[in-house]
Write a structure and sequence with these properties.
Chain A: This is DUF4175 domain-containing protein. Chain A: Residues 460-519 are annotated as: Disordered. Chain A: Residues 470-487 have a biased composition (Basic and acidic residues). The complex is a heterodimer of chains A (707) and B (597). Chain A is 37% helix and 17% strand. Chain A is of the alpha+beta class and 707 residues long. Chain B has 597 residues and is α/β, with parallel strands linked by helices. Chain B has 4 domains: 3-58 and 565-584, no CATH class; 61-133 and 547-562, no CATH class; 237-452, Rossmann fold (3-Layer(aba) Sandwich); 468-525. An 8-stranded mixed beta sheet of chain B has the order 16-15-14-17-18-23-22-21, sandwiched between helices. In chain B, strands 4-3-2-5-6 form a 5-stranded parallel beta sheet, with no helix packed on it. In chain B, strands 10-9-12-13 form a 4-stranded antiparallel beta sheet. The chains are: A alpha+beta (707), B alpha/beta (597). At the A-B interface, helix 13, helix 16 and helix 17 of A face strand 12, helix 5, strand 15, strand 16 and helix 7 of B.
Chain lengths: 707, 597
């Protein structure tokens, strides 16, 4: 047995003992705070305290155990065993470094050491401390468990605050408690209210516990405007309960109307609000598919005052196809959220392959969540998010963008611009694919066509027919060429937005066209320009911008010549309507036409009782200092409850004034509330006062205003 | 060169020589003390200055026979000086003659031609008697507070009204208007002069107190009640003439009949066909039955003679444009006195920024089944409404009445005989009612109608501010009148020359009941401690209107005379003694010279 094994064998029992001892000391110290944490903040906090406490306890135990090392063992052996002869440290010395005598002693000791077991060196339990700590911890845990919770057990009554004068023989409310038990789904604990006014969630159970002095015989709870709630005798107290559906005012009547009227109390029902739903990502409602994307994970956040149901439905609408061949499919996927009940996150992962979503399609998702309200949950639909996978075709034809492209207004390019475009294209020829080159050349050819059509107009559209054969010398054209009177000229598709062509298409605008105002020379030059444009267009559309350039240049030169020769104006004014012929007005048939009376029924102002009571409560004219009859106002307030900002407060204020007509503060409060309960009528007029004699003379003298 | 100058020069030379001598003496001394030298050098010029002042004491100005009147806020230092009269509100400053009022003081001091008012100024009680003498008064600066509030005179039910006011010495504050229920109705920042205008809305007829609150951050600096008297007048009889059926007439008719006006609408549909109410003949006799008429430009052209005749008779006329007007109409309207300036055609109309929903709801009150509350909340869509490019404020005799948010005049009016004519240049104003701006629509049209409509007899408001415990004047009384106090007690008023005095002893709404059975006139009396700065400013302004002493008066009465030289002589004596002692005293000197002797 070497020294290390010896050390391990002889210190292990002591270490084990000290660790066990430490843990038994630490356990009550962890459990008591955990119990307090559980009572105050729930199981989560308790678990956290236990975990942290256990970690600290283990560290502490390890630290204590580390003291039981070789030095301790040597000292303990020397102290406890006489047969070690105060030389126990020789057991752990390196034999190679020892002298012969020391080696002899070491061998003797090694023989003797096993005469006693290592258990004898274990430290004793710390019994006293463990006992005290456990007793204390058990006390704390017992207190935590059995400490009364608010809302459970018999209520503690609070003294009444109604401050009614005591009348001998008539019962009076002396103590009260209001217990509010919210519906289970809200997760709110029951609570006690010392006051008889409170706010509680809709659906809560309200329990009154009341005590009267002297003991009442037929006390009742009188809600304003509904049936009384009966009170039940429960030893010295009276109890009643009711489920809260809507806010109400009530008074506790201890003596069925024999005593003074007690004040009103108010219980407000707080309605459960529907969940709030918003999309966290993506931020915009329209998202484009990125290159290589295979799935989509929108993230929604749902918040509610009590809790959002853990599962929600995701409505996925797919629009697949292009143009008119679009098919829609709709499905609903159940998804579950994460996070606390009041603020849940929903992040579904939508796999394109599984859904069948492909290029050129739209995916619209909408989350539908419910809250936990009982009996009927409230359902809320969130915003729609659109994911678009653009079609690979050019230009983009996905949805609106494609439409925008086709509906872009056509515009004319000048001849100079066509030349510039063609030259640019020639320069880029090497870099472009042949089909792309052809397409762009053809598009410049289209511009050329539109421009030619425009200039043809000045020639009466006749140049739309056939171009001069390219073999013929174009400089030799004369007036007579291509003058075709037979029928409308063939019209090439003018392209959208070229309204001038309509004229040429639907008529024979020979004489009406602006060309009739041109002199023959100009017409000839213009014709040559148009012919050159024909050739240029031909070459461009065949993909030879280099061959088209000479024609284009020539066309430009002719146009410049025309511009120098004369000015051409394009009519840009709108339609000019002919003047109205007054003599022909109203000369048609007039049977059944006659003067009529158009009736108009004014909207009635409806705050009559409110305004009357408001005036009566004031100090000005119409004020009544004596008690005021408030019945009509009360009825009116009940009818108009939907429009009033706080109908219960108004009812309460009416009741207060009725109870104590001389109370100045109550009257002022009711008057202030009535101001908020009145509509602003359509403005009447504050008329000016008539001038007195001098003023009238003055106004007559200055006269003025001669039309 | 005056004797004073010569003396001063001699003293200066003496101080110089003395100093030189001191320095020489110091250098020659056996055991020089630097401290003593410095003290001596400093005391010599002081000694010289005191001697000079003894010989030529500084002049003090005396008020001649000016009587000094101590009022509220007089400083204790005012004891020094001439005779002092203490008015009842003056603080007890130890000396002076107590009098019950200024008139008594002037009677006791006959021949007084000038008084000098110390402190905050005279009370309204004494201002009258101070008119006979010249008053010297240096007004103290106004303390921070509400300097003035102008409540609206009479507000019609449902109308919106403005409360103007001015703050003194309160930069960077917010002024808020609270309605009688304590809700915020308006909140503005005053301009650099401290002026502000707050807007509120009335409900039913009655008396009500709004509250103006001045806040600096979250702290309330001052708040005051503003009395608003809401009283309904007789409903006007309104004639609407239109040359064609259109939406503007339809909505105008709807608005006016909902407001309770007696509306007669005549819409010509052409060819002799008339729509609207039963046809009436438009002549002087018919028009006399109406209080106001709203006429479009096309109807106006044909009937302007008879209409203007009716206006001279008292009718109120509102001319409105249906679109761009032609040259003839423009000329006619210019001839009426509206200086139309600007471009022809139609211009966009700048609408004011909509109120926040909370403010809009507070001003609007509750809704009903027919008119929900949110109908008056502006939509996101802006109404399509425009105005004539011509604005009626380019000269002429007209008074601007409405302006749009861009400052362009929308409406103006002028008096013609007993009646008034207004010109409204807005086009298609009905679009306001369709987009949630119905309150603005109502404000515009009721402002125009209220300005021009035929005069009607009614209540004359009492607009002078009054405070409890202060005399107030009630005028316009034909016979004996009675005032009902807030607690119901009556006070009789015996008027002289149509005016009578009242000493209200409590704050609140009072009712003035005149002889006859006309309705009582309510007026509000502020609590004695309310609006202290407004009261101080009123008294101060009254003081400043009193006759100040003319330059001629000053020469006769306020001459300069030399003051007393005794204090200076005493000071000179003390300083000289100190000098002598410093030169001669043995303290601080070493005794060595003694042994040398």
């Amino acid at each position: 047995m070497n020294a290390d094994e010896l050390l391990a064998r002889w210190t292990a029992p002591a270490k084990r003992r000290v660790i066990t001892d430490s843990l038994s000391l630490a356990l009550p110290l962890v459990l008591a705070p955990a119990a307090i944490g559980w009572r105050l903040s729930g199981i989560l906090v308790a678990v956290m305290i236990v975990v942290i406490g256990a970690a600290i306890a283990l560290l502490f135990a390890r630290h204590r155990a580390q003291r039981y090392d070789q030095r301790w063992l040597v000292r303990a052996l020397d102290a406890s065993r006489a047969d070690m002869e105060d030389s126990a440290d020789l057991l752990f010395a390196d034999p190679a470094k020892l002298g012969p005598l020391e080696q002899l002693q070491q061998a003797r000791l090694a023989d003797r050491i096993d005469r006693d077991s290592p258990q004898s060196l274990r430290p004793d339990w710390s019994r006293r401390a463990t006992f005290i700590l456990w007793i204390a911890a058990l006390l704390v845990i017992g207190l935590v468990i059995f400490w009364p919770r608010p809302g459970h057990g018999p209520p503690t009554l609070a003294p009444s605050t109604e401050a009614l004068p005591a009348t001998p023989g008539i019962p009076r409310l002396v103590a009260q408690n209001l217990r509010i038990i919210p519906p289970a789904y809200t997760g709110l604990p029951p609570r006690d209210s010392a006051s008889l006014d409170t706010r509680a969630p809709v659906g809560s159970r309200i329990e009154w516990t009341l005590r009267f002095d002297p003991q009442a015989t037929v006390p009742a709870i009188q809600p304003v405007g509904s049936a009384p709630i009966t009170l039940r005798r429960d030893s010295a107290n009276w109890v009643a309960s009711r489920s809260l559906d809507a806010s109400f005012l009530y008074r506790v009547d201890p003596a069925s109307g024999r005593g003074p009227t007690p004040p009103l109390h108010r219980i407000d029902a707080v309605a459960d609000s529907p969940p709030q739903l918003r999309a966290l990502s993506p931020a915009a409602s329209l998202t484009m598919v990125t290159q290589g994307q295979r799935s989509w994970s929108p993230v929604f956040a749902a918040t509610d005052d009590y809790g959002v149901a853990a599962t929600a439905r995701l409505r996925v609408t797919l629009a697949i196809g292009e143009g008119e061949n679009v098919t829609f499919s709709e499905r609903e996927i159940a998804i579950s959220g994460s996070g606390p009940a009041r603020d849940r996150r929903f992040s579904p992962r939508l796999d394109f392959g599984a859904l069948g979503f492909g290029a050129g399609g739209d995916m619209v998702v909408q989350l539908i969540v419910r809250d936990t309200r009982q009996p009927a949950a409230q359902e809320v639909r969130g915003p729609s998010l659109i994911l678009r996978w653009p079609s690979p075709k050019q230009p983009e034809s996905g949805g609106l963008q494609g439409m925008v492209n086709t509906t872009l207004p056509a515009y004319f390019r000048s001849q100079r611009q066509i030349i510039i475009d063609a030259e640019t294209l020639i320069k880029q020829k090497r870099r472009l694919a042949p089909d792309r080159y052809l397409a762009r050349s053809a598009s410049i050819g289209g511009d050329q066509q539109i421009l030619r059509g425009r200039y043809s107009q000045f020639l009466g559209g006749e140049e739309e027919g056939a171009p001069e054969p390219p073999t013929k010398d174009s400089e030799q054209h004369s007036d007579d060429d291509g003058h075709d009177h037979g029928g409308a000229p063939r019209q090439s598709a003018p392209g959208f937005g070229a309204p001038e062509d309509v004229l040429a298409e639907f008529g024979h605008p020979h004489d009406d066209s602006p060309a009739s105002s041109l002199d023959p020379e100009t017409r000839a030059i213009l014709k040559q320009a148009v012919d050159e444009m024909w050739q240029s267009e031909l070459q461009l559309k065949q993909g030879h911008p280099d061959l088209a350039l000479p024609f284009a240049y020539r066309a430009l030169r002719f146009i410049k010549e025309v511009q120098q020769a004369t000015r051409i104006f394009l009519s840009r004014v709108g339609p000019e309507l002919p003047p109205i012929d007054a003599s022909r007005r109203m000369t048609g048939k007039r049977e059944g036409l006659a003067s009529r009376v158009l009736a108009v029924a004014p909207v009635e102002g409806r705050d009559g009782p409110a305004a009357a009571a408001w005036r009566a409560l004031g100090e000005g004219p119409g004020a009544i200092r004596e008690p005021i009859a408030l019945d009509s106002l009360d009825r009116w307030a009940r009818d108009q409850a939907a429009h009033l900002p706080d109908p219960l407060a108004l009812s309460g204020a009416i009741d207060a004034v009725r109870r104590d007509p001389a109370c100045v503060a109550c009257r002022a409060k009711l008057r202030a509330l009535l101001w908020t309960a009145m509509a602003r009528p359509p403005a009447h007029l504050a008329r000016r006062r008539p001038a007195d004699a001098g003023g009238a003379r003055y106004l007559g003298a200055i006269g003025g205003g001669t039309p | 060169m005056t004797p004073a100058w010569i003396t001063a020069a001699l003293l200066g030379v003496a101080v110089l020589l003395g100093s030189v001598r001191l320095i020489l003496w110091h250098r020659a001394a056996v055991a020089p003390s630097l401290k003593r030298l410095i003290a001596l050098l400093l005391l010599q010029p002081i000694c010289a200055a005191l001697l000079f002042l003894t010989l030529f004491p500084p002049a003090i100005s005396s008020g001649g026979d000016a009587l000094r009147i101590a009022t509220k806020g007089t400083s204790r230092l005012a004891i020094a000086g001439g005779p002092l009269i203490l008015l009842p509100e003056a603080p007890d400053i130890g000396a002076g003659e107590r009098v019950p009022d200024l008139a008594t003081a002037l009677r006791r001091h006959p021949g007084t031609s000038e008084i000098m008012v110390l402190g905050d100024g005279l009370q309204p009680r004494d201002v009258e008697s101070a008119k006979g003498v010249a008053v010297r008064f240096d007004p103290p600066p106004l303390r921070p507070g509400i300097r003035h509030i102008a409540p609206p005179a009479i507000v019609a039910p449902g109308a919106s009204f403005s409360i103007g006011g001015q703050l003194s010495a309160l930069p960077r504050v917010t002024v808020e208007l609270l309605d009688p229920a304590g809700q915020l109705t308006d909140s503005v920042q005053p301009d650099v002069d401290g002026r502000f205008i707050l807007t509120g809305t009335a409900r039913a007829a009655g008396t009500v107190l709004f509250t103006v609150r001045v806040r600096e951050g979250r702290r309330t600096v001052e708040q005051a009640s503003v009395p608003v008297l809401i009283a309904d007048g007789p409903a006007p009889r309104l004639l609407i003439l239109s040359a064609a059926p259109n939406a503007e007439v339809k909505y105008l008719r709807r608005w006016a009949s909902d407001a309770g006006f007696a509306v007669t609408t005549q819409i010509s549909a052409g060819g002799g066909i008339a729509l609207g109410d039963a046809p009436i003949a438009i002549d002087g006799a018919t028009l006399r039955r109406f209080d106001a008429a709203i006429i479009d430009d096309r109807s106006w052209a044909a009937r302007r003679g008879v209409l203007m005749g009716a206006v001279r008779d008292g009718l109120g006329l509102i001319l409105r444009a249906t679109g761009p007007i032609d040259a003839a109409t423009r000329g006619q309207w210019r001839a009426l006195g509206f200086g139309l300036a600007g471009k022809d055609g139609v211009a966009p109309l700048a609408l004011p920024k909509p109120l926040t929903p909370a403010l809009a709801r507070t001003r609007q009150g509750i809704g009903s089944d027919d008119v929900p509350a949110d109908i008056a909340l502006p939509d996101e869509m802006l109404p399509e409404i425009s105005r004539l490019g011509l604005t009626p404020d380019g000269g002429g005799d007209s008074v601007p009445l409405l302006r749009d948010a861009g400052g362009a005049t929308l409406a103006a009016w002028r008096a013609v005989g007993n009646g008034r004519v207004a010109l409204f240049t807005g086009i298609d104003s009905y679009a306001l009612t369709l987009t949630g701006y119905r309150t603005l629509y109502g404000d515009w049209w009721s402002a125009m109608l209220a300005t021009v409509a035929r005069a009607a007899p009614g209540m004359t408001p009492i607009s002078t501010p009054a405070w409890a415990g202060e005399r107030m004047l009630l005028c316009g009384l034909s016979g004996n009148a009675q005032v009902e106090r807030p607690d119901g007690r009556m006070a009789s008023i015996l008027p002289m020359d149509g005016c009578g005095s009242l000493w209200p002893d409590q704050s609140g709404w009072h009712l003035l009941r005149k002889s006859g059975d006309s309705p009582p006139t309510p007026f509000y009396v502020q609590p004695a401690d309310a609006l202290p700065m407004m009261r101080a400013a009123r008294d101060r302004d009254a003081m400043l209107m009193l006759r100040p002493p003319a330059p001629g008066d000053r020469k006769a009465t306020g001459q300069q005379r030399p003051g007393s030289s005794w204090p200076f002589a005493l000071g000179w004596l003390l300083v000289s003694a100190l000098l002598w002692w410093l030169e001669r005293a043995r303290i601080g000197r070493t005794v060595a010279p003694q042994s040398a002797k």
